[in-house]
## 1
Amino acid sequence: MKELYADSIAFSYRNQYSLLSGVFINCKPGEVVALLGRNGCGKSTLLKILFGIQKPKNGLIRLDGKRIRYPYLSKEVCYLPQHRFLPTSKTVVQMISFMLKDGDEKEQIMSDPILQKVLSQKIADLSLGEQRYLELLLLLGQKATYYLLDEPFSGVAPYLKERIQQLILRYSHTKGFVISDHHYNSVLDISNRILLLQNGGCRQIENKRDLESFYVPEGTFDD
Amino acid sequence: MYSFILELQIQIMKVYWFYYKQILPVNVALTTAFSMMSIDLFYWVFVSFGFFLSVWLYSFFYKKARYIYCNLGYSQLRLVFGSFLINTVVGAVFLPLLWI
């Protein structure tokens, strides 16, 4: 069964209170899971644990039914970190040809209307939104099935936000996404499941209205 | 089948080479500085101390770079090992130049 599954995830920073305690989260191909929560509640840490670069204090991760310690080594899981990670001294073309193996995939990205104009530019010269967009496209070009996106919409111009949403929806038929972002409206628009990380645990939210009880002010979704 | 394996090898080498290119300038600078005392030390510093110090400096000052390699399925250990081998070969190629 194809699924990224994590159970009983516990984590605490040294000499600190328990950040995550017994978190359960799962994602299947075809799902877009919105992971919401307040600042510092452990969303990014949870995504890093799911990716395999942060060691949990306790818990298990299963990838397609198999227990796994470092999911990223399987090449089935990709992670878009909160902050930019591409080397600023390289050009867009250099990064595309480095990160993508498939020729068709390369051509498709190079002909993207937004990236086409900036292909020869250095990463440092791109706007924050363009960098996020490029990072996301490079990751989507990998053969992974599960994508963990940490704040893909933050600092991104509205027209790029829409492009990113369209991209995620286009790929969501075959891939699974877990997206955390403070811009909850951008995530809620495209998600088909909502999880709220609160008090160290994950709470399943049935619909947007329920969010008003736990996360957003009353009346947010009135219209 | 053979071409697939060859292509895979080229792809793997491409990743190691990319990582190695980020390390190399720092290694050359460090090695040059450390071998001021004796040029005979150049090769040994280049393939050992200089290399590992460069790797540490690179991962300390540019922490985010690890996400590139992790997303391609490479662990830090694997990268360091692969680029260490490349560094040894590069060092061996340039070693005879020191005798000229």
## 2
Amino acid sequence: MDKPIRAGRRQLLQGAAGLAAGLAAPAVHAQGAVTLRYVGTAVNQHAGIKEKVRQDLGITLEYIPVTSDDVVRRAVTQPNSLDILDAEYWMLKKIIPSGNLMGMDANRIKLVGEISTVFTKGEVAGKKIGDQGTAPIKVSYMPARDAKTFATGQTQWLTLIPTTYNADTLGIRPDRVGRPIESWAELLNPEFKGKASILNIPSIGIMDAAMAVEAMGRHKYADKGNMTRAEIDLTMRVLTEAKRAGQFRAFWKDFNESVNLMASGETVIQSMWSPAVTAVRSRGIPCTYQPLKEGYRAWAAGFGLPKTLSGRKLDASYEFINWFLSGWAGAFLNRQGYYSAVLSTAQKSMEAYEWDFWMMGKPAAQDIKAPDGTVMEKAGSVRDGGSFDARMGAVACWNAVMDENDYMVRKWNEFIAA
Amino acid sequence: MSSSPPDRRPMGRPVAPLLQAAPLALVLLLFFVFPLLATAVVSLWNYTEYSLVPDVTSRNYVEMFEGCSNLGEGLCTTFRTYLSTLRLCAMVWAFTTLFGFAISYFLAFHIRSDTMRMALFLVCTAPFLTSNVIRMISWLPLLGREGVVNQFLVASGLVDQPQDWLLFSDFSVVLAFVHLYTLFVTVPVFNSMMRIDRRLLEAAQDAGASGWQTLWHVVIPLTKPGLVIGSIFVIVLVMGDFVTIGVMGGQQIASIGKIIQVQMSYLQFPAAAAQAVVLLGLVLLVIAVMTKLIDIRREL
């Protein structure tokens, strides 16, 4: 999933971090300096994290930001061009069979026992959550270090160590819609003809469509993230009908397009990502990340290590991952509306009012600020969807790669041409 | 001289010209011929989710034209996509040629002073100093439902409600293309027009030809090479485009470029290569027909 690169904030952070680095004595470590090439989408590649890693560990991160498609491409075709892979869990179905990632040794991850139950058990607060699609629980473990397959239960070998995850839903313009929205079916409601949008990323777009199709009562999927050919046909037929009837204003492909569609009033209801809703709202335009009764479509990302990694670089990678789980980074990501892998340590690095707002779903006791100091949410406001348990507990399905992926992509192209 | 000097290398061709041509030939071979061959070869390969399988299979071509023989159920995706792309291409070509010709004509024949002509020509190229993505995207806030154009139309009472067809439609795509590519026609046409001997126009006038007759029988035939070169630019650019059609068409309008891009992003390189080979074949065919009609080399 492509995420925003917030230039303004980054530059500010870079400036601030540079100043801090200048004051602190440059960290000199006995083992010598290590540079890790970090390939991933820009979502986790913050200058703030990079600087903190340099100070705390003496490790230099070399960020290589690419699109999510390129993350897969790199991991499959050029595994030697990176030291740390920041991938999403659905990509694993393409990457693991190539044999390019190693199973990470759980014994070398200090906080492995503290990783959220979303990943280790597929549960939130003791309750099973939806596992349709490529749920992390299905692809978190490997039977051996050099395996090319997934293990069914927990093992010593992890595919990815989770970094961020979140639950996605529809964004709406409450001022234009003018009534409560409670179901995914509203995405295809003719009332919003010419004012709806979905993403033109086939594997995600079709799942949003499937949520709508199921909500309309047209079909009950066994697994929305792994449809049969007949189910793909049905879903695309419903979408094609809607497209020909003029339901969609446009499809969007990247973050900024989704923000502009919503902010300019071209659309009033559309698939959206959480930071995009924040971006619309920060322009003073009302926008809600609407919880829906059928649940959320979730996604998760994590760090993987290429099999070729060894020696000092391998040690440094484990060191970095352990640092990432130790709290500072978790708090950094939680403050942006994502969830971090080890919540207990992140909580210690956050102010109580921040934790209450982001994780507990309580009204903000004071203004909630972005790292650069701009106000994201005013005192008294409540996070859309509420607490971590309420949001992640209501996950219905996960971003996925289907077995019939080829067929689905062809059908999607057909839909765009229709 | 009564006899030609004796040829010092009667047995073979001189080496020097070959050496002189070698660097260019090498560059072309390495960066043009080789990638093309690679594309053609890969288009015959098989693939899985995560790997390419060297093979000779017709799978990619078969899947591309799946259902295309059965016209009873409407056109197949590939034909529909080509039709959509060709239709846009035809519209863009018509408008860019018209505007490009008119602008060049004005510059070449109505502006008397050379300085003024060059100044105006530079003005035409000035927008190209900015990124063409920016020039394209700047249409969005103008044409949107709550954009400047709609605000003006509604405020002036010309329409009752905002017009949706202004954006994310064929109209907006063609508008953006014309804006982006008119110069590609203007430059070669202007070049051709400047080479026309002015005495020919005077002769036509003296012979009693009207303005239109001069245009049709003298100016247009002599600017044909420029028109063909400009047309080739526009057709090649539009046929392979996916960004402009994507952004201005709201991702709702099919184009070959978009299909290739989607396939690439799903690691279906062989399928994308097959699409590229077919697209290349079609574009070459169009160019071959155009150059058959007008011999550019001779005219240049």
